[in-house]
Design brief:
33% helix; alpha/beta; 8 strands; eight-stranded mixed sheet
Length: 371
């Protein structure tokens, strides 16, 4: 009888989400963009090098990296010029080639939504114009960085909105830029909008289908970084992006998984993520996400609040952040903590550990988060 009662309560809460009692009432259903990069058919048919090229859909990032390592500079340049849309999005390809390939692809694209991405000097690590568009941009010197971070955003993000005029720390490039500035030398940060995000706060945001598709793409992207000889990243996952990270966690090569403003990670607790990465969680006292029921029923909802002490995540202070998009605001305790994680100094080891890192290290599990 108790189990039946709990089921009824969960059903009522899930129905409330669907009906709009939590604010999840608007937003168009999205079709996830999956599969290989644009131009893959021509790439597969190309025999200019006298051999088959690695299949963009089936070859692992490690296999792609080995293939490019065996090419001469002239051969790499030939593929870059012939297939910029494939090379620019091929996880495991050398990042320098990807930058140049995406610069060519953007220069040839006449869609006004992407014009700002083509400005010289930007380090565009991925660009796919199909649908709403997907993009990844690097801040810092990724090749020489000792520590790498990836920012995974939530709803309403795509290549067309990437450069929207919002608070400097609110959109994906703003999050990545402020984190890189705070983390300092020796770090690089990637703003990764490499999956189809929900639009608005409709049914897509309340279910996991887009996150499932995004988790595979995020995993492959991170594998591509490590295959190219870069460090495993710390992954910062905002809002619906934390659902993506939760689903990806068990196979995602990462040192840390940091969730902020999370509706849940589709896991009952941190152990359920089955990750070797350290798991961190932040939620500020004014974030509307706190009004979203942490349930999973009939495919709706994303489960336990990661900032619940029972979840077992490490605590990230966020008392100074404001709203759902304020976690990367300069001067906040949350950004200082994120910077310590991004630098790799948020550990008990080392007499030179900064004060903000010591605070994190001394709080291995979250407790006393304001709601």
């Amino acid at each position: 009888m108790r189990r039946y009662a709990r089921t009824l309560v969960a059903f009522a809460l899930a129905a409330g989400m669907a009906a709009g009692t939590t604010g999840w009432v608007s937003g168009d259903a999205q079709q996830a963009l999956t599969g290989p990069p644009p131009g893959s058919a021509q790439w597969r048919a190309d025999r200019a090098l006298g051999t088959e090229l690695p299949d963009p859909e089936r070859a692992t990032p490690a296999e792609v990296a080995r293939f490019f390592a065996g090419l001469s500079t002239a051969e790499q340049q030939l593929l870059l010029v012939r297939h910029p849309s494939v090379v620019g999005n091929l996880d495991g390809a050398p990042l320098e080639l990807r930058y140049r390939a995406n610069s060519l692809a953007l220069a040839a694209d006449d869609d006004p939504r992407y014009r700002s991405l083509a400005v010289p000097g930007r380090q565009i690590l991925a660009f796919d114009p199909r649908g709403r568009g997907q993009v990844a941009e690097v801040f810092g010197d990724l090749r020489t960085a000792q520590r790498v971070s990836v920012v995974v955003p939530g709803s309403d993000n795509d290549a067309g909105t990437f450069d929207r005029k919002v608070a400097a720390h609110g959109a994906p490039p703003g999050m990545a830029r402020t984190l890189h500035t705070a983390a300092g030398p020796g770090t690089a940060v990637v703003a990764w909008v490499g999956y189809t995000t929900p639009v608005g706060v409709g049914i897509d945001a309340a279910t996991g289908s887009l996150a499932e598709a995004g988790a595979g793409r995020l995993t492959r992207f991170a594998e591509g970084l490590t295959a190219d000889g870069l460090p495993e990243p710390a992954v910062f996952c905002h809002s619906y992006g934390s659902v993506v990270c939760g689903i990806a966690a068990h196979r995602l090569p990462a040192t840390d998984v940091v969730v902020l403003g999370s509706p849940g990670m589709r896991a009952d607790d941190a152990a359920g993520l089955r990750t070797k990465a350290r798991v961190w969680a932040a939620k500020d006292p004014t974030d509307w996400i706190d009004n979203v029921p942490n349930v999973r029923f009939a495919g709706l909802g994303h489960g336990t609040d990661p900032t619940d002490p029972a979840f077992g995540a490490r605590r990230v202070p966020a008392d100074e952040a404001r709203g759902h998009a304020g976690y990367f605001a300069p001067g906040t305790d949350s950004l200082r903590a994120f910077a310590a994680i991004a630098r790799g100094t948020a550990t008990p080891e080392g007499a030179e550990t900064p004060a903000d890192a010591r605070v994190l290290a001394q709080a291995p599990v979250l407790e006393g988060v304001a709601r």
